């Protein structure tokens, strides 16, 4: 990221594999003169972030207008719980945010996963985001044993905010 002046970056897409990726992003977003307004984050299944992320690693995302988080639902529920909670904590500082999108590749869906969405609903209910137009939760699954309608209803039932939109789709591997 050092070869592009921070003032010229409006939309930034980044792959977060480990803490070595977090630190430069923290530095860029903490800079007084950064112009990043749209952040697209992909967290791959092979990430090493789970055991390392804590509140001291928060990103300064207060000036973002849109954020898209592309993450996997991991076989170990504690991993995705921790990762989603970390992102929701980061969202607490957003004032100008207009759109928040979670794109989740669904592996296992357990009722424990839904507790994270309650935390996001609590955050939304506090009126922190006056400019927010939509929170989009898109869940993709390849498993035919999953009832997509049921998953959609389960997630929607965690929210009272009308700005939240849930989409659940089934995709086929090629």
Can you give keywords for this protein?
174 residues; Leucine-rich repeat, LRR (right-handed beta-alpha superhelix); 6 strands
Care to describe what's here?
Strands 1-2-3-4-5-6 form a six-stranded parallel beta sheet, with helices on one face. The chain is built from four helices and six strands, in the order E-H-E-E-H-E-H-E-H-E. The protein is an alpha/beta fold and 174 residues long. It has a single domain (6-170), classed as Leucine-rich repeat, LRR (right-handed beta-alpha superhelix). Helix 2 packs parallel to helix 3. It is globular. The relative contact order is 0.13.
What is this structure's SSE topology?
Layout: E1 11-15, H1 19-30, E2 38-43, E3 66-72, H2 77-91, E4 99-106, H3 114-125, E5 134-141, H4 148-156, E6 164-170
Number of domains: 1
Provide the β-strand percentage band. Answer: 15-25%
Mean pLDDT: 82
Total strands: 6
Strand line-up across the major sheet: 1-2-3-4-5-6
Give the structural class.
alpha/beta
Indicate the radius of gyration in whole angstroms. 16 Å
Summarize the helix and strand pattern as letters. EHEEHEHEHE
The biggest beta sheet is recorded as: 6 strands, parallel
From the N-terminal CA to the C-terminal CA, the straight-line distance is: 34 Å
The number of helical segments is 4
- Globally, the shape reads globular
- The low-confidence parts are none
């Amino acid at each position: 990221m050092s070869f592009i002046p921070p003032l010229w970056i409006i939309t930034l897409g980044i792959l977060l594999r480990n803490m070595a990726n977090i630190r430069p992003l923290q530095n860029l977003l903490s800079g007084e003169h950064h112009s990043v307004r749209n952040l697209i984050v992909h967290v791959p299944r092979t990430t090493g972030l789970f055991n390392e992320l804590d509140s001291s690693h928060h990103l300064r995302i207060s000036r973002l207008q849109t954020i898209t988080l592309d993450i996997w639902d991991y076989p170990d529920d504690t991993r995705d719980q921790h990762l989603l909670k970390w992102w929701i904590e980061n969202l607490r500082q957003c004032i100008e945010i207009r759109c928040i999108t979670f794109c989740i590749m669904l592996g296992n869906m357990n009722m424990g996963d839904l507790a994270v969405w309650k935390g996001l609903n609590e955050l939304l209910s506090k009126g922190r985001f006056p400019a927010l137009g939509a929170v989009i939760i898109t869940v993709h699954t390849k498993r035919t044993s999953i009832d997509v309608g049921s998953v959609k209803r389960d997630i929607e039932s965690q929210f009272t905010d009308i700005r939240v939109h849930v989409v659940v789709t089934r995709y086929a591997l090629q």
